[in-house]
Write a structure and sequence with these properties.
Blueprint lengths: L1 H6 L2 H15 L8 H9 L7 H20 L4 H9 L7 H27 L4 E12 L10 E11 L5 E9 H20 L1
Antiparallel strand pairs: 1-2, 2-3
Helix pairs in contact: 2-4, 2-6, 3-4, 4-6, 5-6
């Protein structure tokens, strides 16, 4: 990850660290590495979404481990300096600043973080479509619903999951959501 961190400009690295801290503090559902990667690539930096996701996972692990061990800023920086592959100076400065400013808040909420082992629902989009024909069937006129769920996994990576349903499947899906809503109203 250290090699990929060298590629990331300091201001984007700082933004990534801030988003990870906000995610660990449960202020945002996750880190949108796809959007951040696209902005970095517009500067001509050769980095992939996968590489940026690895950096984000590494930083998330670093900050959550430091919080769990209640490390001070100096202890964290000393630990980083003793690693096998050394981080670039600008990265250590950003980590020091972010941890110094917001590290204590993570330490308080880390117990709640340990209980969250599943992803978090962020958004849902749907659209209705009709398949008119295919190469094997000339006249389908088959309605379907496409649903796209935006989910943040436990490490904070935001991904989209899409699936299609027939109208009867969608009606069942909708009925289950209504049941969940009525149960939640009683809580």
């Amino acid at each position: 990850a250290a090699d990929k961190i060298r590629l990331i400009p300091q201001d984007f690295f700082a933004e990534l660290c801030e988003q990870i801290i906000q995610h660990l503090n449960h202020k945002i559902p996750g880190v949108n590495t796809a959007e951040l990667c696209q902005r970095i690539q517009t500067l001509g930096v050769d980095i992939t979404i996968g590489d940026l996701a690895k950096v984000a996972n590494t930083l998330s692990f670093l900050f959550s481990t430091a919080a769990r061990n209640n490390l001070s800023t100096e202890e964290l920086v000393t630990t980083l300096g003793s690693g096998i592959s050394t981080l670039p100076k600008h990265a250590v400065q950003v980590i020091r600043h972010v941890w110094n400013e917001q590290g204590k808040a993570i330490a308080v909420s880390e117990d709640a973080r340990n209980t969250a082992t599943v992803g978090q629902f962020v958004d849902m989009k749907w659209k209705l479509g009709v398949a008119m024909s295919s190469d094997t069937c000339r006249s389908l006129k088959y309605p379907y619903v496409t649903v796209t769920l935006t989910v943040a996994d436990p490490s904070g990576q935001i991904t989209d999951k899409s699936f299609e349903m027939t109208i009867p499947q969608f009606k069942n899906f909708f009925r289950q959501f209504k049941e969940m809503a009525s149960v939640l109203e009683t809580v």
